[in-house]
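notes to self, project folder thing:

trying the whole complex as one job this time. last attempt i did each chain seperately and stitching them together was a nightmare. two parts in total, labels are on each line so i dont mix them up again. if this works i'll redo the older ones the same way
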Amino acid sequence: MAFFEQHIHDEPKTFLSKYIISFDHKVIAKQFLWYGIFFLAVGGIMALMIRWTLAFPGEAFPIIGTLLFPETGGVVPPDTYAMLFTMHGTIMIFYAITPILIGAFGNYCIPVMIGARDMVFPTLNMLSFWLATLSAAILLFSMFTPLGGAAGGWTSYPTLSTLIGSPGVGQTLWTLAIFVLGISSTMGAINYITTIITLRAPGMGYFDMPLTVWGLWLTAILNAIFLPVLGAGCLLLTFDRVFGTQFFLAGAAATSGSGDPVLFQHVFWIFGHPEVYILILPAWGIVSDLLSFFARKPAFGAKATALAMTSITVLSTLVYGHHMFTTQMSPLLTQTFMTLTMTISIPSAIFFANWLGTIYKGSINFATPMLFSLGVVFVFGLGGLTGLHLGTVTTDLYLHDTYFVVGHFHYTMAASVLLGGFAGVYFWMPKLFGTMLNEFWGKVHFWITMLGLNGVFMGMMVVGYAGMHRRIYDPFVYDFLQRLIPINTFITWSAIFMGLGQIPFVINFVHSVFWGKKAEANPWQVGTLEWTQPSPTPHYNFKEIPIVRCGPHEYGNPNLPAGRDFQYQTEEIV
Amino acid sequence: MKVLFSFYLFLTAKLFAAEDGMSFIERISPPEDISENGHLIDWLFNYITIMDAIFFFFVCLGIFGFSYLYSAKRSKRGEYTYGNRKGQILVATAIGALVFFCIDLNITRIANNDYVGTFINWPKADEDVVKVQVLAQQWMWNVRYAGKDQTFNTEDDVVTTNDLRLPTGKKIVVQVLSKDVIHSFSLPNVRRKVDAIPGRITRIWFQLKKTGNYEIVCAEMCGTAHYKMRGEMTVYSPQEYQAWLDESQSIAVAENDPENADQFWGWKWEN
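result (full assembly):
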């Protein structure tokens, strides 16, 4: 569909219409950002409680322990522990990373980077945020129901998640919360896809879009296809719990006919594997762009990077079975999924070649966003490579459900995505809030985070290979795990170190938002469309819709006049 | 900031010099391999790790090397190239192809050979194997051996709880089922695990080479007391095992109550 121009409406005047029920993509982006940061803190504190329990079993959690668990004197009890790791996973994936990377950056970056005045469906956008809030309210409420919140792991495999394993209403509410969130994200995804197809500024072909937009677009496509699958699974599970159907019951528990608990695993992982890429693709896009922006050099093989991201998107839908090797699928399926999983490393290797190619012979400015981007390359390297151990069926027979898996997916889904998100926050801060974040404290934040997370996740892989399995309240019940106490203590201290390292960020962020130094229009000297406008991005982004005349990565062209090494996308290549 | 980093260094140092005198390598090694085929998994793990290390070495060389060489201080202006020249595309493609054919396909081939040739190469029906049925439930392992009649689910079966006894030197086939939720029957010392699923019998075969006492782990989250779902595995020499089995079988014949329906949780053994 061809491009069309959106109308400009008057700026909303009341507090309610400006900040609460807002149709403006920039405000919705900020709403999602605050929402995500809030849940990042909640999920982070849960992670610290989990780590504390593993390193110091039977000792009271400091400061807030006695407040939260008065009946045990501050020690996390086993049933609460199960709830904590379930909620930590759920919150971090669906309520922290998704809103920050997809909700905030998706909403903010897509229109301003493609030269549109807003999303194509502003009402849908507003509904998407408020449904996400409803879902969050259900989830938070579920933790205070009589038998506690969901405690079957974020994967919530039946039959543990049916009435047999968790009779409390908490699990039902959890399932509903995820269902509602699925609707919200699907709405967002449809909006993103349509916006990118219909509202690109005149002259902007698909390969003239910044790679950030590519990443967000592919993410939206995966979301639109696969979140409904998760929604269907959640709905069937709710039916099993509430209406007495037996989709996922089998054996003695199935009184009339028989379903199959493994069916849920299929449904869950058909969604669950693409979910990994849903989370990482925006971060890849951001990193691919930022490496070029701060190395002052065109992105190396930008077209190849975009195509590699696309092929990963396709491949990610074909490999989900590697999560289920231990359920003893047919050998043919096992072999197929293993081989398909391995093919993902071709596009991944092309990424790495292109990322390193981008900084090769550049002129690198190590500002905070660049540090975080280089951090992503490092941690994603570790995370991606350790995936080989798990995609290989025989080694997976040993490593499945150990901490090796936990370490691996935290490297890919938590560390890389989080660093990518931070890079984005530091980079777009001037456009989002019109102020700069403090560089010194940004660098402190980077180094603490980087050291801490490697200590945590590397440590997890080490204990996992040594045999410690996941989701256990007290690993030292087992004799052969006794020797791992010192390593677990080390991991926990690293986690605390990393947790404390986020305090400078929060202070820096809040301070900048409200009292920060005003930013110039283009402090990073970057040529994509949002930087042609003043900071913060004005109401309706572009008074005149820009006409795009060159790609997003025009740096270091020798024909440019002296003193200038980049050009805007609105300018003809010199 | 310096305080923070020195604190972190102190932690790292403490890790390498823990009180119990165990070396770091010993601490992070997987539990002892007592099976005939576990070395295949260990070998492949190490192989993949080495391949990863080589690849990651080059990534790090790129990240740190280029960061050093091409920082704005040393390199005033970036090179103006899109990376779409023939030579550049060729290099990127070559890296992708090299990784895929030399590392991935090789790993896939080895894993596939091990998997098909060993781990799912089930003993033939007429082979003399030790047969065991395991029923997982919240939160314990029920173990069943066919009694003197060699038929499962009859009144002379030997039934134990959280107590699996096996001989060395003979193939062992374990059939696993769950009564309530999904569990995972995991033997870290054998490097293997298989899920215990309600309504679906899964199986696992292995052969042991070392006697001693080991642990059975439940590897799949199965509820609040999941962490306590621990079983004992005792590995005997063939003679000791026969002696134990004979004794247990006579006790079972004398003490099992045929009227007790709960006792017949077993199933018909099919290959």
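what i see at first glance: The mean pLDDT of chain A is 92.
need to look closer tmrw
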